[in-house]
Structure formats: C-alpha cells, structure tokens
Amino acid sequence: MRTGRASRRWSRLWRAKFPIAAILVLLMVAGAAAFAPQLAPRDPNRQSIIARLQPPLTPNRQGRIDFVLGSDGLGRDIASRLIYGARVSVVVGLAAVLIGGVLGTVLGVLAGYVGGVTGSVIMRAADIQLAFPFILLAIMVLVVLGPGLANLILVLGVGQWVTYARIARAQTLGVSEKEYVEAARAIGARHGRILRHTVLPNIVAPLIVVASFNLAGVILSEAALSFLGLGVPPTVPSWGGMLAESRDQLLAGRWWMAVLPGLAIALTALSCNVLGDWLRDELDPRLKEAG
Question: I need a surface site. Which of 7, 101, 137, 276 has the fewest CB within 10 A?
C-alpha cells in the first residue's frame, strides 16, 4: 500500500513541471555547495588587477576565455564566487531552519500539550518577538555580537522559532483531543512516549511545509544581512556580499556583477517556494480532496 501511494505521489510530481524544475535548481545549488573546489574554475579570492571588470565571455589576447561570467572590481572570477557563495546560502539556510524548527517545535508541542502557565509563558514570549520586525532585530543583535557565520546562523535560527511554535501548538491542541491519544493515556503511557510516538508523527507534515517556505526566507535574510556587511566576513564569498560589492559598478554598466548573484538568490528562493507549495498540496489531504 505504501509503495502504491509513493508511486502515485511520484507520478503527480512528474506531471507537475514546476516542482521538477525547482528540485533540479535546488540540486544544482546543493551540488555547487558540496563540490565547490572541484567545480570552481579558479580560487574565488584570487585577484588580478589587470583582468578586473571583464564582461562575460571576453577573450584574452590568446583568444581564450578566462572569465566565463566575467570578473569583479578586484579581478576575481564571478563564476567561482557564485559557486562558493552557494555554500554560505546552503549552510546558513539548512542550519537556521534546523535550529528554528527544532526549537520552535519543542516549545510549541510543550505549550499545546502541557498548557497552563507553561504554555502562556511560551506564547507570550512568541508574541513579544513578533512585535519587533525581524530584520531590525537581527541587525541589532549582529551589531552587538559581530558578523560571522556562527552568529549569523544563531540569529537567523533563533529568529524563526516563533512560526514553528505557533503551528506546532495549534496542531498539538487538535491532536491531543483525538481518541488514540486518550487511549494511550488510559493504558498508562508516559507523556514523553505519547509525544514522541503519537503527537509528533501527526503534526510533522505542516511543519515540513513551513520549513520549505522558511528556507527561502532565511536565504533572503542572509543575503540582505551580508549586503549590509553583517553576514559572513568579506573574505568568504557570498551572494549577498557580491551584491554589496556591485553597488558602485551597476550604474557604470557592469551589470553582470549584480545580475548574476541576484539571479542566483531569486532562483533559489523561488525554487524553495515552488517546492513548498507542492508539498503543501501533497501533505494536506483537504487540499487534495478539494482538487
């Protein structure tokens, strides 16, 4: 039965063209992040002042193309920096979603299952965080902590827990009233076992959908913070940092310095949203029945 359900799901995925394209884009980004040293044609930090600001596909004196996607103001290869920049987006995105998802799910399940003062304290803390615009809160914290990969992941991860907590709490409140949970309590099952084996498996589907959408938001937030100089150090290639470096060159007609990293950010975020939209349709039985 599970095999037939999986085959039908793969069949629907194959017929839906956009999710396939989104998965391919995300696989390309993940592959670039995993195999950056093997794929990058040059050292991303290698400078060549003589070859600075070369447009894409510009041949040298020997007729060879040294910079397929052009070079930046310091003569660094744009293609290599794009490939290495995928590492920052993938690592920061996945780590922040994992931190926020685990923290928010644990607190949300606790608030929904235990309730009382514990639940009220957790949800009031969530309301307090929601009262502050996230990007301003992240800028304030990173100014105090200082830029860096670890601090960036910590800020983005902790900043995402509220969404997971609210959804996990709402789902837990609904699941806790089901007959199978009452039956587990009646036979003397411990609360920890009920949460692990009865509650969590029944609330994980909407959390997976939220995580897929949230991944796009984290990637955009990382790019914005790196653009402001509060992300990774300048020596680490990142798509947001590349956009920041292109500010003075865009008006001079050096479009490739801004368009290429901007396109990488947009395609990755769009692919995450498309995949999340498909997962929402697949994991929500009400939407499938309506369709």
Answer: 7
